[in-house]
Structures are given as structure tokens and as C-alpha cells.
Amino acid sequence: MGTTIMTTAIAANSTSQINPQPMNGELRILDIDLGKRLGFAKPVKIRELIKRHLSSLEQMGTVPTVGTVKRGQDATEYYLNRKQAIFITAKSETAEATDITIDADFSHLRQFRVIL
Predict the structure, then answer these.
(1) Angle 3-95-104 from CA coordinates, rounded to 5°
(2) E strands present in the chain
(3) Is 29 helix (H, G, I), strand (E, B) or coil?
(4) What's the pLDDT tens digit per position in 36-71?
(5) Which residues span the domain enclosing 15?
(6) Domain count, the chain
(7) Relative orientation angle of helices 95-105 and 82-92, to the nearest 10 degrees
(8) C-alpha angle 23/27/28, rounded to 5°?
(9) The organism sits in which domain of life (predicted)?
């Protein structure tokens, strides 16, 4: 229930679309998509925040990763679940994070509901 509502709430006030990906029966958000929505000048910088809080994120569930090579550099993509995405949003301290956090907190008041 919460993942769909949260991603809908994020997308409702955004010019950046977040498309959750199903992984092992759970919707997950790609780290860079969240970084764009949070207004990071360089969305890949969100990975530094994720690495800094990785032990806390792991307490909220597994943190699936995908290794990639971008421009000759090794990179690790992180896929966050609902709780992890909200946690990183709050830790990001961007102006956009305030709007997203408020939307996530009040998502249960919206007129539509999606129940998984």
C-alpha cells in the first residue's frame, strides 16, 4: 500500500518522474531518480548519502545494488524501498525534500487509495 502511494505523492508535485521497479515482489526506486526529484545538482551525489547511511537503510530491508560502468568508471546503483526512500529524503535536507516528506506523511488523506 505505502509504496504506491508514496511514489504517486512524489510524482504529483514533480517535473521528474519516478518509476518504481519491482524487485523480489517489492517496488523500489532507483537512487538517481530520487536524487533528481530531490533537486541534487548532480543526482549521482545521492549515492554518497546512501553509503553514509547504509547500515541504517539495511535495518529497513535489503538494499539491492546493480554494478554498472559509466564513462569508464565503476558505479553502484541502489534500489530503495519505501522506508529507505523516505529516510534518504529526510536526510537529504533539500527544499524539495520538505515537500516530498509532507506529501508522504499526508498521503493517507488523498482521495484515492491503492491497496496492494
Answers:
(1) 20
(2) 21-23, 26-30, 65-70, 73-80
(3) strand
(4) 999 999 999 999 999 999 999 999 999 999 998 888
(5) 2-109
(6) 1
(7) 140
(8) 80
(9) Bacteria
From the list 65, 73, 19, 48, the residue with the least C-alpha distance to 10 is: 19
Dist. CA 108–CA 88, nearest whole Å: 20
Closest CA to 40 of 100, 82, 108: 100
- How far apart (Å, rounded) are the C-alpha atoms in residues 7 and 10? 5
d(CA 89, CA 103) in angstroms, rounded, equals 12
Q: Under a CB-based contact definition with an 8 Å cutoff, are residues 49 and 40 in contact?
A: no
Residue 5 in this model has a pLDDT that exceeds 70: no
Alpha-carbon distance of 34 to 28, in angstroms, equals 11
Residue at 116 is within a domain: no
Query: Domain for residue 34, yes or no?
Result: yes
How many angstroms separate the CA atoms of 16 and 33, rounded?
8
Q: pTM for this one?
A: 0.73
Instruction: Please give the pLDDT value at position 114.
Output: 41
Listed residue (95, 111, 100, 105) closest to 13, CA to CA? 100
